[in-house]
Amino acid sequence: MSVIRVVSYNIHKGRSAMGSRESLADLRLGLYGLRPDLLFLQEVQGRNEQRISLDAQHEFLSAALDMEACYGCNAVRQQTDHGNALLSRYPILQHENQDISDHRLEQRGLLHAVIEVQGVPVHCLVVHLGLFAGGRSRQVAALVERIKRLVPEEEPMLIAGDFNDWSNRLAPLFVQQLSLYEVFAIAPPDSIGPRRLLGKMNRLRETLRYGTKPEQLAQRIHELGNNGAARMTPPPRTFPAAFPWLRLDRIYQRGFAVRKARVLQGAPWKQISDHAPLFAELELP
Fold first, then answer.
1. What are the CA-CA distances from residue 169 to residues 140, 164, 173, 233, 257 (Å)?
2. Which of 36-45, 72-81, 128-137 has the lowest mean pLDDT?
């Protein structure tokens, strides 16, 4: 049995929530305190020729945290580039970055890595989807096609990142086609922390807003669980970090037991990036 500490975080290219200052040093300290085993990072700058302090951010963090790293470059500018990165305390056996850009104004990719946890291959996919609903649907279709083609059904899998899916329209694809479950939907209730009361209030508001019965609301939320064990739990609010309102970031899993799931709010996280990070403790049988 292995317990894996997972963090998913859009790090805003190493700049603070408002972009007014560099935040990599604070990010390094914050992540060090979490003792993560896997980091799914988005908006990571692999190259910055204007500011050397913001260059090769995945290498800077992996050296500080003593983790392996792989980087998928998505957006290339004249003096900078950025994309997704996976940092792992376990060996990274292989990795590949797939371009899933839907149009030239938004360069997007998915980084697919295979790590080894006590002899078990675990597939890790870091994603950052587009801002437009049609593009996101096509990008998820590409993700589903890749998984069906390259990931054996019996092997554990994690997909995490910034989905930009504030309306929660994409969850049915993951649940129905890939048997993936969002970690907050199946985490033990007492592991979610202060979010429990807020979640109850949000669900009551949505019930009153849509005039639906609880079972209809569950169908709207589209979060199903193993053996019907999931609660009516929408994905967490993560943006903006200072006052999270939009549900943009997710961690989906297959083959794990979820021990804990939390949104990291308050200091120092609200100053480090414009997104709040997600943290989960997963158990691999």
1. 11, 10, 9, 14, 24
2. 128-137
Band the pLDDT of 218: cuts 50, 70, 90.
very low
CB 279 within 8 A of CB 37: no
CA distances from 176 to 54, 144, 173, 179, 225 (A): 40, 11, 5, 6, 11
Q: Omega of the bond prior to 240 within 30 degrees of 0, cis?
A: yes
pTM of the model: 0.87
Strands (E), the chain: 2-10, 38-48, 68-76, 80-88, 92-99, 109-117, 120-128, 157-162, 181-182, 249-254, 257-263, 278-284
Q: How far apart are CA 152 and CA 99, in angstroms?
A: 22
Dihedral angle over CA of 13, 151, 236, 169, nearest 10:
100
Give 234-275 pLDDT, tens digit per residue.
789 999 999 999 999 999 999 999 999 999 999 999 999 999
How far is it, in rounded angstroms, from Cα 269 to Cα 89?
22
